[in-house]
């Protein structure tokens, strides 16, 4: 019986250490992959920010996107509530540039987006898109849907200089 103790203890220690080490290697690899993706996201943000300067019209912006076969859409009012925009004046264009794994088990995968924020040049009563709207800001944000609600993760980022 004493021999089993000599065999079981080293095997258990090796199994515990290899699992712990395996987890550490996996976490480092995931962190490295995330950092590489973040560099790509920042590069894409910078390219949009350089091509679409604040002050250009929605027509110019959307022509630029269509000319590059880039899909874009207008998000729901939730987006504006999360940005603490009390009275948005014009619809924002969003371009999906990536996906990340779901932040929680009950969420959909997290989308990575470029947001093209516009301001209206006229008074209107509804949140709509008009060709004369003026681009105010280009930003990067993460957005996921978790069960019955949507979540905007971290603060939207402006391009780094």
Task: Describe, in short, the structure shown.
The protein has 161 residues and is α+β, with helices and mostly antiparallel strands.
How would you describe the overall organization of this protein?
This protein is α+β, with helices and mostly antiparallel strands and 161 residues long. The chain has one domain. It is 41% helix and 25% strand. It contains 3 helices and 4 strands; from the N terminus they run αααββββ. The chain has helices at residues 2-51, 58-67, 77-82; strands at 93-100, 110-119, 134-146, 149-157. Strands 1-2-3-4 form a 4-stranded antiparallel sheet. A hairpin with a 2-residue loop joins β3 (134-146) and β4. The radius of gyration is 23 Å and the shape is elongated. The model has no long low-confidence stretch (mean pLDDT 78).
Give the secondary structure arrangement, pairings included.
Layout: H1 2-51, H2 58-67, H3 77-82, E1 93-100, E2 110-119, E3 134-146, E4 149-157
Antiparallel strand pairs: 1-2, 2-3, 3-4
Sheet with most strands: 4 strands, antiparallel
Which strand order does the major sheet show? 1-2-3-4
Strand fraction equals 15-25%
Roughly what percent helix?
Answer: 40-55%
* Residue windows where pLDDT falls under 50 for at least 5 positions: none
Helix and strand sequence: HHHEEEE
């Amino acid at each position: 019986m004493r021999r089993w103790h000599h065999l079981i203890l080293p095997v258990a220690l090796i199994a515990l250490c290899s699992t712990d080490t395996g987890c550490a290697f996996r976490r480092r690899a995931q962190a490295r992959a995330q950092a590489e993706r973040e560099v790509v996201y920042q590069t894409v943000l910078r390219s949009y920010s350089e091509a679409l300067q604040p002050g250009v019209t929605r027509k110019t912006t959307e022509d630029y996107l269509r000319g590059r076969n880039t899909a874009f859409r207008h998000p729901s009012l939730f987006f504006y509530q999360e940005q603490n925009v009390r009275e948005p004046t014009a619809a924002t264009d969003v371009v999906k540039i990536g996906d990340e794994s779901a932040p929680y088990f009950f969420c959909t995968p997290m989308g990575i987006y470029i947001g093209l924020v516009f301001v209206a040049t006229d008074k209107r009563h509804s949140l709509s898109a008009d060709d004369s709207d003026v681009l105010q800001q280009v930003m990067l944000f993460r957005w996921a849907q978790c069960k019955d609600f949507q979540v905007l993760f971290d603060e939207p980022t402006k391009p780094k200089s």
